[in-house]
Design goal:
Elements lengths: L7 E12 L7 E9 L3 E5 L6 H8 L8 E10 L2 E2 L5 H7 L4 E4 L3 H4 L6 H13 L3 H14 L18 H13 L5 E5 L7 H18 L2 E6 L2 H7 L2 E6 L2 E7 H6 L4 H7 L15 E16 L4 E17 L3 E5 L6 H8 L6 E6 L8 E2 L5 H4 L6 E4 L3 H4 L6 H12 L4 H14 L16 H13 L5 E5 L7 H18 L2 E6 L2 H7 L2 E6 L2 E7 H6 L4 H11 L3
Parallel strand pairs: 3-8, 3-9, 6-7, 7-8, 13-18, 13-19, 16-17, 17-18
Antiparallel strand pairs: 1-2, 1-4, 4-5, 9-10, 11-12, 11-14, 14-15, 19-20
Length: 539
């Protein structure tokens, strides 16, 4: 029986696990060691097995749903796969902390921040509330929550995305564990907030001298943060070693393809085209009520006096942090929320533009097929009770009266356009990968033959190689059909690869807009400079 090396904190040996609902193992003969004081990155596409491997260390998977057919997970000379629940309870949040990808689903929405942070101190150190409170405040300060003492009674929904992630970090580290497992902790964050969180994690890792297992699909983060890296595919570790060695001299074809999967070069300059969309003085304000009679006495100016135009076949990238108003702008243009100003849209063959804000619901309905929206999370935007055939055909049935045979032919055509096998059309969304679900969402919009697509973070939840595939698909569709895109994103590399022009938003206003290459190479506004610098800043 093999022994752990003196500097190995965790050692995983020949781990194989299979979900009882599946015929093939999700993880197969995985072995690795997490050494004292290092950051080890576990990289792979969705479904590669990286998260279930990490969750197995703390035995977080449902025991009735998974079988461990072989392997050991050694920590402090104990095999965690065979430890009893009492021992695991001492380890979880005590010796080993964990940060999850989406804090809003990990934090209790009904409990205050203080109560959730203090709970771990009650459990592992037997502290009273009075003794726990100073330590809770100290850790909120350490993770750089401003005005920490005044935020103790805050509920998770009252915090920003970055603040919630900071609370999750404090919760994982408040007992000063020897090991931190961080599962995609920055995927949903804007570039500036992501940079802040990564710097914070690196600083705390140095201060506590802890080891970190960092699970991600973002190779840029790995290069900045990790000492060593492992690459997983289909439940197996294909390659592992020092980060510089793996990045500079990958040994497997898959590793080489993964490291080369950048979104691509910027699109060619757009030739002179007719204007398709013209937005003038657009405002979307939300009233804030207070007092006994709930009178509106203030406004949240989510979109504040924005003007721009979009030509046929052009992509305008809209960039900004969470809360900048970029998603509200997209929804306002489609009249999904009430707004003021002018949104003029020109139909093919017509000389006069339609002001969408002046049209009734009945008048705007026939125009909706020409302006479609694709959302960030395809799993949330696709009905789990409908087959792919029904999902793609739904909009077409509203706008055209087709028989069953003609409807099916159009669905098959749309699926072929987005490179999805039409034979899969009777399956349901849960049977598809994230990239395939996004293709379904694109096919649903494309089947109506629109002229404008509003794309709201369409690649942010996808792995890098899948992102590249979706970007390539969108660029091909634009080239083939002359589509215009409003491309909303916080991923600057994807925006650069898609956009002819860029518009940067902050606090509901446009701070700068212009040709993509000019703005990336020579930004003028201080905020634009800070945003672009954050993406390239070392930790």
């Amino acid at each position: 029986m093999s022994q752990s090396a003196p500097n190995d904190l965790i050692r995983v040996e020949n781990l194989t696990l299979t979900f009882r609902s599946a015929s093939e193992p999700a993880v197969r003969n995985v072995s690795f060691a997490l050494q004292d004081g290092e950051v080890l990155a576990l990289v792979g596409e969705s479904g590669s097995g990286k998260s279930v491997t990490a969750q197995s260390i703390l035995r977080l998977l449902n025991p009735s749903a998974v079988d461990y057919s072989s392997g050991r997970i050694l920590f402090a000379d104990n095999d965690l796969l065979r430890a009893d629940e009492r021992h695991l309870s001492r380890i979880r949040g005590g010796s080993i902390g964990m940060i999850f990808q989406e804090p809003m689903t990990s934090l209790n929405p009904l409990q205050s921040i203080e109560k959730q942070l203090a709970e771990s101190l009650y459990l592992h150190k037997g502290m009273s509330r009075e003794k726990a409170r100073p330590l809770v405040i100290e850790w909120l300060q350490r993770v750089e929550i401003r005005h920490a003492e005044s935020r103790l009674n805050a509920l998770p929904h009252e915090l920003s995305g970055g603040e919630r992630q900071r609370v999750m970090i404090a919760m994982a580290l408040i007992n000063e564990p020897a090991v931190l497992i961080a599962d995609e902790p920055t995927t949903a964050l804007d570039v500036t907030v992501q940079s802040q969180i990564l710097k914070l994690l690196k600083r705390l890792q140095r201060e506590l001298g802890m080891s970190v297992l960092f699970i991600t699909h973002d190779l840029g983060i790995v290069r900045k943060l990790a000492d060593r890296v492992m690459i997983m595919r289909r439940g197996e570790i294909l390659e592992q070693g020092p980060t510089g060695d793996v990045f500079d001299h990958p040994k497997t074809d898959y590793a080489r393809a993964l490291l080369a999967a950048e979104p691509g070069a910027p699109p060619p300059p757009l030739t002179q085209s007719k204007p398709l969309l013209s937005v003038t003085g657009l405002r979307t304000w939300f009233g804030v009520s207070s007092g006994l009679f709930r009178r509106v006495n203030n406004y949240v100016k989510a979109v504040d006096d924005i003007s721009f135009s979009l030509a046929e076949g052009e992509t305008l990238g809209i960039v900004g942090e969470s809360g900048s108003g970029k998603t509200t702008l997209g929804r306002s243009i489609l009249q999904l929320i009430p707004s003021r100003g002018e949104v003029r849209f020109t139909l093919a063959g017509e000389l006069t533009a339609h002001n969408l804000l002046q049209l009734s619901a009945k008048q705007i309905k026939p125009l909706r097929r020409h302006v479609q929206m694709i959302f960030q999370d395809p799993f949330a935007s696709l009905s789990p009770r409908m087959s792919v055939m029904q999902i793609i055909a739904e909009g077409l049935q509203v706008h055209e009266n087709l028989d069953k045979q003609a409807l099916e032919a159009r669905v098959i055509e749309a699926m072929n356009e987005v490179q999805l096998d039409p034979a899969l059309r009777h399956r349901y969304p849960n049977e598809f990968s994230g990239g395939q679900r996004q293709r379904v969402a694109i096919a649903r919009a494309l089947i109506l033959k629109p002229r404008l697509l509003v794309l709201d973070e369409p690649t942010s939840a996808l792995d890098r190689s899948v992102q590249k595939d979706i970007v390539d698909l969108l660029r091909r569709l634009q080239r083939d059909y002359g589509l215009s895109y409003l491309f909303i994103s916080h991923d600057l590399s994807v925006v650069r690869s898609m956009s002819h022009r860029i518009m940067i938003m902050k606090d509901g206003k446009v701070v700068e807009q212009g040709a993509a290459e000019t703005l990336f190479e020579r930004p003028q506004h201080p905020y634009s400079k800070a945003l672009l610098a954050a993406a390239n800043e070392p930790l």
